[in-house]
Amino acid sequence: MKQRIITALILAPLVIAGIFMLPMQGFLIAIAAITLIGFWEWTQFTESKSRYIALIPSVAALAASLFLLPTATLELTTPSDGHQMILLVGSIWWLIASGLVLTFPTSKHLWQNNLPLKHLFGWLTMIPFLWSILLLRADSYVLDSFYGAKLVLLVCLLVWAADSGAYFAGKSFGKRKMSPAVSPNKTIEGLIGGIITAIIVGWVAADAFDIRFESTAAMLGIFIATIIISVLGDLVESMFKRASGIKDSGTIIPGHGGILDRIDSLTAAFPVFAFLYFL
Length: 279
Description:
Strand order of the largest sheet: 1-2
InterPro entries: PC_trans (IPR000374)
Subcellular location: Cell membrane
Helix content: over 70%
Number of helices: 10
Strand content: under 5%
Main location: membrane
Radius of gyration: 18 Å
Catalytic activity: a 1,2-diacyl-sn-glycero-3-phosphate + CTP + H(+) = a CDP-1,2-diacyl-sn-glycerol + diphosphate
Shape: globular
Largest sheet: 2 strands, antiparallel
GO molecular function: phosphatidate cytidylyltransferase activity
Order of helices and strands: HHHHHHHEEHHH
């Protein structure tokens, strides 16, 4: 636990500095690098004979998306039809993935021995994650180069607050399990505590950052959807690890495991938040 806390205290300021200080193209490179590491860790779930060979389709899919969709800063400020489709597909994937995790292990036979499907799941997890962060970071860039950075940080704060709130509420009041076959520690009471905590933190942050929503109701709806899907996103990665017999997705972050172990909730939260925000 001590190592986890120390690592988190070091990583959090670096993440925030990267969100605000990196120029857009540098930010793109950083997120693309995180996505590639995520794809590398995902190769464990495919259970292929060679992880290097298993990585090739994902690298090709990422490269194709970067080639086919606009990446210039000014083009990102107004999401194209292609960008919107990526966000829509990503959001639909997380609804499907949530269904898979809530019905696990019954649902396992649908995908466990299907290699192409497990590759597809990785693409649907990582590629919308990359584009949703880029689109949020570029929002209103011409008028205020830091507005998008505040949007990205807002999503991170929602996820972090939901995670902390769910942990303490679950410890204090948790009785009913969300998905005992995947994660016996996740409870309905914890989820409710996480939602309440994250809404409070998100509301305060949105006001402090002067983030614009169509209405208070729209803001709350986006917050609640993002929070719930972030909790389920954490469970989805746990489901794939459990099915593959893996404890952690990697060892790159001391005390925290791999990149996927740290961004599992974010990979779900960002596409859903971005899709609803840009509607």
